[in-house]
Amino acid sequence: MIQVxxxxxxxxxxxxxxxxxxxxxxLEEAGLGYDDHLIAHEDRLAxxxxxxxxxxxxxxxxxxxxxxxxxxxxxxxxxQHSDALMPADECGRAMVMTWLxxxxxxxxxxxxxxxxxxxxxxxxxxxxxxRPQVEAQLxxxxxxxxxxLGDRKWFAGDRFSAADILMTHVLRDLRHTDILAxxxxxxxxxxxxxxxxxFQRALADQLKPFRAAxxxxxxxxxx
Length: 223
Ligand SMILES: N[C@@H](CCC(=O)N[C@@H](CS)C(=O)NCC(=O)O)C(=O)O
Known about the structure:
Radius of gyration: 18 Å
Number of strands: 4
Strand order of the largest sheet: 2-1-3-4
Number of helices: 9
Number of domains: 2
Shape: globular
CATH superfamily of the largest domain: Glutaredoxin
Order of helices and strands: EHEHEEHHHHHHH
Distance between the termini: 36 Å
CATH class of the largest domain: Alpha Beta
Oligomer: single chain
Bound molecules: glutathione
CATH topology of the largest domain: Glutaredoxin
Largest sheet: 4 strands, mixed
């Protein structure tokens, strides 16, 4: 049985964004069942968990054949075994890998810097000077990304692929801003991807334990 490690609870700003959702979504698209192995934040420190995920983060993954960490690598592994996420032809697979890495290496660092400023360093004096630069660099990337998408529905060809899981997840981390509204084709792209039933199931499954934890301990929501 496939097992995906996820957190039992995270603060509201991270709910729906924790990276196990990438893996859950890939498994849903591939039609593969899995168990989620829920850990508490402090369980990250346990040596047994570090053996599975050296940085004490989620997700970690095991399927009886491999034990993996790094959400991008896990999604790629699942995709290599599923027609739903990768085309059969070699050149098509190369394009999926290209756009999957573009999401993680060419877009995510810019989105991550902005999200870091807005969420983890909100209100700190240095952000007043730095944020406009970060936003400007991000906007340049988004303009190029939108041009690259052109009239296509998906990034790596004419069908949805593993690359779209990564790209959508990265772009979703801008949802605390209205920046994507300036790039209508990208906003439509994210909405199209989020409307997929597999994404909706993955999101609901990530949120389910958070809601249960909050019902048991209302002080979590109150902060
Ligand atoms: N590059 C890793 C990053 C994983 C990651 O950042 N996980 C976050 C949740 S989205 C985490 O576990 N944060 C808790 C921590 O770092 O202590 C991946 O893509 O799997």
